[in-house]
Amino acid sequence: MAIGARSALSREAVLEAAAGLVRRHGPDALTMRRLAAELGTAVTSIYWHVGGREALLDALVERTVAGLGEIRPAGRTPEQRVLSVARALRRQLRDHPHLVALVHERGLTERMFLPAQQVLVREAHAAGLRGARAAEFVRAVQFQVVGHVLVERNRERAPAQHPGEQELWRADGAGSDPALARALARPVDTERLFVTAVRALVRSLLAPHGT
Predict the structure, then answer these.
(1) Which residues lie closer than 8 Å to 161 by C-beta, 6 or more apart?
(2) What is this structure's pTM?
């Protein structure tokens, strides 16, 4: 919706419009002139609210980092709560790839993940983990989420495969397990695979030593 006067603008409205441009078209599409056109106002009005482009990018990074800090665990068991954190983090990374890339380009990736790490630290402590085991728990869950998202994106961006999995697994590549071949020939259910992997990881990390 166009905003015709500076008085009708707010800093948050400018940031929301800028974030929308980045989400749809990537950071390179964010110019002050294009943002002004999006808002239906003058470039000088945007400068008045957020400063120049570098200040605008800094504000977008802060906004993205704050959004990642809004993750709230849900569930009755440690496994359920950590799974809820992992799913929320995955969803945010998938929903805002250009904004996440912007944060990474500005050298603030570790800061971006700090709020999620802090949530996982609290869950690790609540589950009785301390010290190196708690640190391993936090990083393992984080790496599992980020790695899964990267694989998903690579699969989505890849050109059409010829032959694809369906054709490849028609061949005798599964030994005496035709059900396995049929399963591998089907499209990947990435959500189900993600949940399965995180649950297995969390159970392993929470298991007492020696079991």
Answers:
(1) none
(2) 0.79
